[in-house]
Each structure stands twice: as C-alpha cells, then as structure tokens.
Predict the 3D structure of the following.
Amino acid sequence: MANIKEFGSKVWSIICLVSKFIYESILIPIWNFIKKIFKNPKSAVGMSILIVFILIGIFGPLIFPYSAETDVANKYLWPSLEHPFGTDWLGRDVFRQIIAGTGNMLQISFYTAIISVLIGTILGILAGYVGGVVDKIIMSITNIFLSIPSFPVYLLLAAVIVINGSLSFALIISLFSWAGLCRAIRIQVVSLKERDFIQICHVMHMSRTHIIFNELMPNLFSYIAINFVISMRNAIVASVGIMFVGLAAYDPTNWGAIMQAARDKGLVNVQNVIILLYPLINIVIFQASTLLLSNGLDETLNPRLKVM
C-alpha cells in the first residue's frame, strides 16, 4: 500500500512538473504572442482575415457540403439564394466548390510553411553556430537554390512527380522556400554568437542545447514567425499556378483548377469570366491578409523598427 502511494505521488509530481512546463513555456508565450499580434493594427486585421479563412476551411464544408454530381440542365445559372456564386458549365455550385477548396488550400500553405521553416531554421542555425566547412557547404547549397528560378522547377517536378494531395504539393513547393530563411537565420546566429551573453554561456560550459534553445531561439523568433507567414502566402500562389497549368491531379474544388476550367471553357462567355474571378478574389484577399500579418509582425517583433 505504501509503495502504491509513493508511486502515485511520483506520478502526480511528474504531471505537475509537465503541466507547469506546458503552461509557462508554451501556453504563456503563445498567449503573449497573440496579444502582441492584436496590438498592431496591421497584424490584427491580417490575423482576423486569416482566422475567417481557417473557420471557413473547417466548418464551411459541414455547413455547405459539396457534391461533384453534374446537372447540365442547370449549367451557367446566375447567382441566386440557392447558388450564391451561380453554377459552372456542368451545373455544379461554384460557391460550394470555393468553400470545399478553402481547407485544401490552407493545408497546402500550412504544410509548406512548416517544412520550409523547419529546414531553413535547422540549416541556418547549424551553419551559423558550427561555422567552418559545415557553414561553407550549407551556404553553397543555399546559394544554388536561391539562384535558380523556382516556378519553372516547380513545373518540371510537377510533370515528373504525381501530385495528388496537400502533402505532395507542400513537399514540392517547400523545396525552394527554405533557402531565404536559412540565410537570414545564419546571419543572425553569426552575429549573436559573438555577443557577451553567448560568450558567458561558453565560459560557464553550458551545453549547446541550452545555448541554441534558451539563448538563440528567442532572438530568432521574429524571423521565423514572419517567414512562416510569407511561406504560406507563396505556397498559395505556387499551388494555384501548378494546378492552373494542369500539372497536378485534377481536383474540381482547387482554386487553380476552377480558374483553369473557366479559362479552357472560353473567357468570351461572361459567366466563365465571373467564375474565374471568384477564386482569384479569394487569393487576393488571402495574400493581402498574410502581407498585413507579416508586416505587422515585423513592426511588432523587430526591435530596430520599434526604435525608429
């Protein structure tokens, strides 16, 4: 019985320690970061629009389920209460197509941002902190990726690799998205590791893990956060472009596929022009929201801009 109580007290103490760590190291920083976002007008507007897109992507298909069944008898209907954006050449509801495609587009942008930020941050820190031959190798590879025009390579890879999901889209797009962040992180790490507080850590024989995660990462967070948003913005444009030129598996709800089909059916028809404009307007709004969010984050998190 005593052993059971002792084991229970140990488990409870571990749970308390983990809970305290999650609260102090994860939840409080996230809450403080959210408060900073909404204190800046630009980032507040950008984040609010992005939240609307996320809510549409999650709950939109549940409220407005999309059916791929065709109804040629009701093709090219003008907007109405039943069909807010009208119907396409096969009688499918365009509004529900846009809603159904929102979640997929957000998944592509989110996966791309995660992959790009992880690769760029890890390689940037490795190059800047280790230096020497490792730095030269990583920077040589980075410069190659930065010098090659990305979109033609996207098209080439899309022609070779079968793209049939959000993750495959993200893997191809993130191939070039990491290089800019890698260089920026490397420059910052090279500068930071010469600062007094890092030198003191070395004198005190603190581990590299402590220096990287406790000393360097807080100073790199602004670059990582801003690049995450920029990667999301670029991923939307790249994925729509790949789908628009027909180099990915056809998905009638993808915004690029909607635009491609409207173009192929002939823009002489005014209704095809209108159908093409719906996803285009959504892309412009999404781009504007991420631009406002990234600029607002830069103003909020960049100490140089605060001084100015």
Notes: The chain is about 80% helix and 0% strand. Residues 1-39 form one domain. The radius of gyration is 24 Å.
